[in-house]
Amino acid sequence: MTRLITNNKVSVVTALLPRMSADPVIERVFNEGDPSVLLLSARGTLIKDTWYQSFLPTISPEKTLLQFFVPDPEVDHIIEEIIDSGGIQQAGAGAVFSVPCLDFAYSEDFALWSGGQEFDDAPDASDGLKENLTAIFCIVQAEQTDVISRAALQVGTHGPIIHYCEGRGLRDSLGWLKITKKPTKEVMIVVVDNADADAAVEAMVAAGRIDTPGRGFLYRMPVQKGLVSIASTFGGRRQPATMQQMVAAIDGLKGGTAWREQSVQQGAAAAGAGLNLFGKLRQRQSLDGQVILSCVSSRKNTETVMDALLAAGAPGANASQAKFIEADAKPNSHGVRINVERSIIHAIISEQQLDPIRDALKTCVESLEMTNVCIYSQPVSRAYTYIRPAS
Amino acid sequence: MQPAGVDPRDGKASGTTRLGWSDTLRILYPYFAENLMEQVRSVWFIVVYLVVFQILVLGLPIVYATMIGVGIVIVAVGLMFFMEGLRLGLMPLGETIGAVLPRNSPLPVILGFAFVLGLGATFAEPAISVLKAAGSGVAPDQAPLLFSLLNDFSGQLVLSVGLGVGAAVLLGVLRFFYGWSLKLLIVPGVLILCGLTFVLNLDPVTQPILALAWDCGAVTTGPVTVPLVLALGVGVCRIVGSGESSNAGFGIVTLASLFPILAVLLLGMYHYQAKDYWGAENYAGSATVSSALPDAEAGAADGRSMITEEEFARYVDNPDALGELNIRFEGGQPELRDGEIVLTDPTVVLSRPLVERPAMISDTQWDGSKSILQGLADAMFEALRAIIPLCLFLFLTLRLVLREKVQRIDEISIGILFAVLGMCLFVLGISLGLTPLGSQLGSNVPGTFAAITPWGMEGQEGPLFESDNAGKALAALFGFFLGYGATLAEPALNALGNTVEKITVGAFKKKLLMQSVAFGVGLGIAAGVCKIAYNIPLAWMLLPSYLGLIVLTLVSSEEFVNFGWDSAGVTTGPITVPLVLAMGLGIGANVPGIIDGFGILALASVGPIITVLLIGRVVAGRQAREGTSAPVQESP
Fold first, then answer.
1. A-contacting residues of B 145-184, CB under 8 Å?
2. CA dist., res. B244 & res. A213, Å (int)
3. Which secondary structure element, helix H or strand E, spans residue B337, and what is its range?
């Protein structure tokens, strides 16, 4: 019988990095004591903005998404280390952000960092760190990502980072006919200032027509702390400074981001996306009071966990495959790690559903004696999808 | 549309829904329509191109037009099933093994598995028939060693290729574990091959086997082997390494293209040493020299149509029997008489003029020797042989050695069924449609620079151009587009494109890879046409290109080296090979001194490596210029 240990003081620290700088970051964090990381392959966004570029080969930059589970007291320190080893202060070098967990339960064999080390001389130089960020996740069909990316860039976000996931829903109810549907979808991640979040969400929902049936799902999560320096230029490439550098410079001059909020209210940024808002964002129907319940399990248990989630009443679930790199799995003599594969399974459910569904999932995990599992939930500030009108 | 990862909140619980017939059809119809259209998009170019070239440029009709049309439809349907079969069945199976094998087994088991997989794949998709076709014109007195390898030692030839592929897969898997750079294997490997090629090129006996060996490298990896091996690599990628080594899954196909070359060269050298090839002291075979070239070709060169003995007999009976003849006077004594030139005692020569352009559509619509049922049975046998043993081997390894449950067994079973069905139709369609079309066009292409007898027709057709070089240039241009179009339709390349796109999470688009590879193959085939048309020794073309490639490889990023070299191995598949061989043989038959159609395929493999690596350099250069401190810039 698997015993699940509960430890609610855990945050998920996510780093979005160019593929090349992932290795030093992982090594540094491992040196600091964190025993494990989940690694997903991802890509950046490259927009062709002049006509001749459509004839040139475009290869989107390859990215890596790293997800660390960090005890709350260590979060600041780990973020500092990631920023330092990944060089995230530099423009275009990546992003890092942390989202605290509401609760966190894990099996004994799950390599979780208990932390506990006190760093007396821990640098508290959180200068660059922002506490007013929002992470936007958008799950859509692969064909739609380009349109949504363009809309997001036009309202001034950074180029979305995209990775794959496999969804559950209609496909599974089709029996053998499910071969006709491709399971793969894309998850777009955008991290923006709170000030820009409404405009970005609005632009993405509108561009992807997320609120029409079967189009996709978008949700926002409040970020506790983070730093984003993924390039967000859109337009001429001969500018001496990137748009993001200019915005950052004005932030510095104005002493904050309040000026941006004003410009959003004036509709300037939103108007850029072709939304005629004039001061007031159109009221879109959204799902409030949601939480995201996540489960990390070995790949072969993916289907079981998803079935358990759906059986317990979750409206849907999706899974991403990640490499689970453990610090213990030292590189062999030639510097290559043989890792294991883990699935990260997400389900977005309402707050009322959280307790029963989580308990059902825990029961399932315990009774089937799954190993290497962790289950956690995080707050979702708002979610958008097709909402069936009350009849 | 299917809903996104999270269900639209319409409250439908999971579980199988009972669907009526009409709903089933409503789901199936767009599925098949979309997939079929995708294949039509990949095949149409080569078909339209071949037809247009034959009718408009060469001005010849299409023989067996109905049969070819039916065949091409079957090819598209077959490709549709085959590609879906790869996606649903073969690739997930290979991926699962790749992701489980490295962690759960001791190294010797893994290496044994890899070796058997490579060896088995070669026997499942033997390319020897293709090579025999290419060497069908080889006369033992001209190229004794080559002749012996293809006839007396063909079993050893297949075995050595198989051992080469086995060793390649083994080494490729070993590479994952030690994180070797692919460059580390390619550069010495290519240098050894180039050295051997240079040495063997000096001896007239061993020189002809060079082309055979290099072509072996190109054709060994077939449409079933490549996706399986790629999937294996993808699976390994999913767990091995952390950041930079994420492309470790590629490279097996590259090695599987290089090692057979080495194996065949070594086999040739062994028999050269043992002196047991045709005509040598220890020869034990029984082949005898066949008669010289067939007569039909003999008179073609100067643009006449020969009058046979039998026709002459008819002429003697009735001077009008042969219709209008050209009259020419030769010899005689010219003298000036009353202001006119008078020839006394000339020889009057009657010759038959070239036939006027034949009708646009030939009368022959169907080749009587081909029946769909017989073709279907043969194709089914071939498909079963290529797919079932390999799948069984993978499945048993998974269950018995790795003791892993196969996930989604229902989807995989349907996928394998689709793959068998698709490959069966595909092979049938090729034999009915593409091969007849390609071979008639292939043998007609030399009409651009020589007088020929159009394929399947009577009479003679003159050279299209007065100038020999202009005609050959047109033939090379034809070769370029033939290579380009055929490559876009290759299933193995499609699979590679999907794999690359998947591994890079869509950063490197399939379309870009396919276009650059197709362009490269086109260039390679154009070079191959020149090789045959001007009878340039293969070594003179291969050595400089491969040496240049080594330089390019050394300066390219690991990622592009992986993609580029792998794409070389996958390009020459079931669509390209028959078309290219037919053309090579056709051109070779019209150029004096050419004995075989080898070598074009080897050149077709070099082209894509060059183009993909060059694109890699271009992209890297652009990103370096744009990027500031960051390694890559988000948006330009």
1. 176-180
2. 40
3. strand B333-337
Backbone angles phi, psi at B500, to 5 degrees: -60, -45
Residue B239 has pLDDT above 90, yes or no: no
- If phi > 0 it is left, if psi is from -120 to 50 it is alpha, else beta; for residue B551 that is alpha
Cβ–Cβ < 8 Å for B474, B465 = yes
Coil, strand or helix at B143: coil
Contacts of B498 in chain A (CB under 8 A): none
Is A144 in contact with B4 (CB distance < 8 Å)? no
Distance CA(B233)–CA(B226), nearest Å, equals 11
Which residues in chain A have Cβ-Cβ distances shorter than 8 Å to B516?
57
Angle CA A11–A168–A145, to nearest 5: 75
CB A11 within 8 A of CB A75: yes
How far, in Å, CA of B633 to CA of A91, rounded? Answer: 9
Q: For residue B238, give the nearest of A47, A168, A323 by CB distance.
A: A323
Report which DSSP code applies to A335: S
Q: What are the tokens at B278?
A: 């045709």
At A154, the pLDDT band (50, 70, 90 cuts) reads confident
**Which residues of chain B neighbour A181 with C-beta distances below 8 Å?**
2
Residues of A in contact with B627 (CB under 8 A): 92
Over residues A59-102, the pLDDT tens digits come to: 777 888 999 999 888 888 899 889 888 888 776 778 999 999 99
Tokens of residue A321, six digits: 């495959």
Secondary element (H or E) of residue A373:
none
Other C-beta atoms closer than 10 Å to the C-beta of A199 total 29
**B2 pLDDT above the threshold of 60:** no
- Minimal CA separation from A120 to chain B, in Å: 32
| β-strand partners of A226 | A97, A130
Phi, psi dihedrals of residue B503, rounded to the nearest 5°: -70, -35
Judge residue A86's burial from the number of C-beta atoms within 10 Å of its C-beta, 0-12 exposed, 13-18 middle, 19 or more buried.
buried
For residue range B266-282, list pLDDT tens digits in order. Answer: 999 998 888 888 777 77
DSSP string, B179-218: T--HHHHHHHHHHHHHHHHHHHTTSTTTHHHHHHHHHHHH
Q: pTM (2 decimals)?
A: 0.80
Q: Looking at chain B, which residue has its C-alpha nearest residue A140?
A: B4
Q: What is the pLDDT of residues B63-78, one digit of tens each?
A: 788 888 888 899 999 9
Q: Cite the DSSP H helix spans in B13-150.
A: 21-52, 65-85, 91-104, 107-124, 128-134, 144-150
Is A14:A108 a contact under the CB 8 Å cutoff? no
Burial class (CB in 10 A: 0-12, 13-18, 19+), B106: exposed
CA distance A203 to A136: 12
CA B267, CA B272: separation in Å to the nearest integer?
9
- ipTM of the prediction: 0.79
N-term to C-term CA, chain A: 46
- Written as six digits, the tokens of B69 are 């049309």
Residues B604-623 as b or e (16 or more Cβ within 10 Å = b):
bbbbbbbbbbbbbeebbebb
Q: Helix axis angle, A302-311 relative to A351-367, nearest 10°?
A: 140
- CA-to-CA dists, residue B324 to A93, B310, B349, B352, B592, angstroms: 82, 17, 13, 7, 32
